[in-house]
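Long-time lurker. I teach an intro course on protein structure, and each term I like to show students one example going from raw sequence to a predicted 3D structure in token notation. This year I'd like something fresh instead of my usual example. Would anyone be willing to generate the tokens for the chain below so I can use it in lecture? Attribution to the forum is fine with me.
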Amino acid sequence: MLTKRFNQIFKLIILGLLLAGMPRVTAQSITLAECQSRAMAASPLQQKSNYVASIRTLQEQNRTASSLPQLSVQGSATYQSDVFHFPLSLPGSDIPMVPKDQYNLSVQLNQQLYDGGMARANRQVEDAELSIRQTETDLSLTQVQSVISELYFGVLTVQENTLLIDALLNELDNRYNKARVSYQNGLVLASTLRLIEKEKLKAAQQKVSLAIRQEALRQALGNWVGQDLRTYQLIFPEILPPPNAINRVEIRLFDQQNELYHSKILLNQTTKRPRLSAFALAGLGQPNPMNFFETGWSDYYMIGARLQWNAWDWGKTRRNSDILAISQQSITSEKEQFLRNVQSQQFLAASEIEQLNQLLLMDQKLVALQKEILEESRIQAEQGTLSEADYISQLNEYVQVQLQLKLHQIQLSYQTIAYMILTGNL
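-- Reply from a regular --
Happy to contribute to a lecture. Here you go:
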């Protein structure tokens, strides 16, 4: 009869462990990649990408407009104290007097023919600045990945700790029931029951704390994702070998800043090149500004070409180029230092991953060994050579080594994701 009872208890407990180890089938589930994707899509920072695209479109329209003829209108009305006149009068000629009140209205059309490459260089500068803005947005979004990973694995860790507490409570319940029977038969003291009740209360406190923390973590994760995740099942991420190449967004940002300074150097060099433009001027004035002998209202026009060349600037352009080149070298130094820091962190992270891999191998051996010990304990308990309390202790040890294996798997997955974020390969 005792053997039959032990067999029934053993089968029920093993079945419970198997069900606890199996993934829970729920109507809704979500992965780490989905959480990160939704969080970045819901982030207000994502709107900055739309702003950059709008600015790029507007700048392109401005460039097109700059290449078209520019039309300007000018007007003036003046009164002056003195005007040009001949001091002598010639017999038989009537020299008109230039009026002191003068009026002029003109329209001027300008067309740039050659700007020394300034428009092209300025376009490169604007494009580089916009690329930097976009990359800075991408850099801010990569921080979202780290936050989501911490919250996601935080939920998974709490879940596994809750399983450990549940297994402990199950063991304490079994021990309490057996102790109560023994107490009723006069085999143990009442203090044994109170001791087990105290341990159950301590475990229940831990479970309440874990439940509150899990609720907070799920709410925080749901706030980032933009969805209530309290009823979702979080899928355990697949552990893949992380790549070693460094593809951080900061590297791209350093390269773009370097390219920006290069574009500014080219733009600065255009200031010493000549500029050629054509113009046409037409207007109405009193007197005619082209002929002061026409003192009444008269129209006029003028067409021509204009050359502008700052041939000598006392070395200002060269010094500005030197300043930009020094700034460019500074960016290169910052990039090299950043790579060195990342590589140092990469070595430490790789060591942590290797350590967890070694621990997992040992955990698997411990689980297999403890399973054999548990089976031997079951046989001894059935034969009456091992107390029920000792058998349950071995069962609890089996649960703990299984959960330790699961926790190390979570840590390995988290460290792998963190390594991919560190190297910019996520």
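Some talking points for your students: Strands lie at 29-30, 70-79, 101-114, 233-234, 275-286, 298-308. DSSP finds eight helices and six strands in the chain.
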